[in-house]
Amino acid sequence: MSNLDKRAKDVKARATQPDHMYSYCRVIHCGQPARAGTADGLDRLYCRRHADHYQRHGSPTKKSYPAQVLNPYRQAALVWMMAHEEDFWVKDAVGKVRGLYNRSGQKAEAFRLRGLSPRERGTALWARLRASEVDPRLPVAAWLAVEMVLKDDPQPDLKPEFKRVQAAKLVHRMVSGTHKRWERKRPHPLHPGLPPVRVVEEKHWYPKSRGRVLRHIGQDLAGAVELLADHRLEDIRTFKGERDKLGTYTSSPYPKGVVARTRP
Ligand SMILES: [Zn+2]
């Protein structure tokens, strides 16, 4: 091997060696080695456990808000919007979510999402919402709820990413999976001479609620709702505070009579 070849080989070896190989998880007091880079690229800063948490929740350590915490905020936001349908900023946000629906192209079945990029999967989610006829006010209310819960949280994670992932998780749950059911004939288990038996098989696919796709959905939603939040969030918070004096609203994300999907 010539010197030149050898040098080229060394340089290549160094370039392909991950630079984070000897680094540690960024979470204070964790002490575990950081995960080797993955194709996703989201988690090179953290150990396996914290990387996984970060993918699912938008923060390496802070937990997602549970439903019973978010529900009163989601209800209040929606009820307020229903009472202010003609508000300029409400119309603006709902119209923008409708735009996300309309620009999202054809609905893809959940089992076809695997080969798509996170951006494409995010767009596919909006198409699924449209196909399921999810009221565009519901994603708007979900965003407003997350904005409000962060304001009431004494120890909030104020990074945009956490907010986006929290809201995206709620939107993600508004879509259904893809379900298939079919019948198959099987030889009789006792004797091959007996007539075959029929068995029903089912398979269910759900889009995965983790990783970069949540960041894209959250970013889309942030863009749609930010002006409404800028102008009306304090009014809605006041309304929420008054409404909470009248009852408890922790058991459902929607007020009575509202369902997420009108089509499966
Ligand atoms: Zn860690």
Please give the count of helices.
Answer: 8
Which bin fits the share of residues in helices?
40-55%
SSE order, one letter for each helix or strand: HHHHHHHEEH
Mean pLDDT, all residues? 87
Q: Biggest sheet, in brief?
A: 2 strands, antiparallel
- Distinct ligands, ions and cofactors found in the model: zinc ion
Low-confidence stretches: none
Class computed from helices, strands and strand pairing: mainly alpha
Shape: globular
**What share of residues are in beta strands?**
5-15%
* C-alpha end-to-end distance: 65 Å
Spatial extent as radius of gyration:
24 Å
Which strand order spans the largest sheet, edge to edge or round the barrel? 1-2
How many structural domains are formed by the residues? Answer: 2
- Count of DSSP E strands? 2
Overview of the structural elements:
The chain has two domains: 14-57, no CATH class; 67-244, no CATH class. The mean pLDDT is 87. With 264 residues, the chain is mainly alpha-helical. 50% of the residues lie in helices and 7% in strands. The protein is globular. The termini are far apart. The longest helix has 33 residues, at 212-244. It has helices at residues 3-16, 48-57, 67-83, 88-102, 118-131, 137-152, 160-172, 212-244; strands at residues 178-186, 197-205. Strands 1-2 form a two-stranded antiparallel ribbon. It is built from eight helices and two strands; from the N terminus they run αααααααββα. The protein binds zinc ion (ZN). Zinc ion binds next to helix 2.
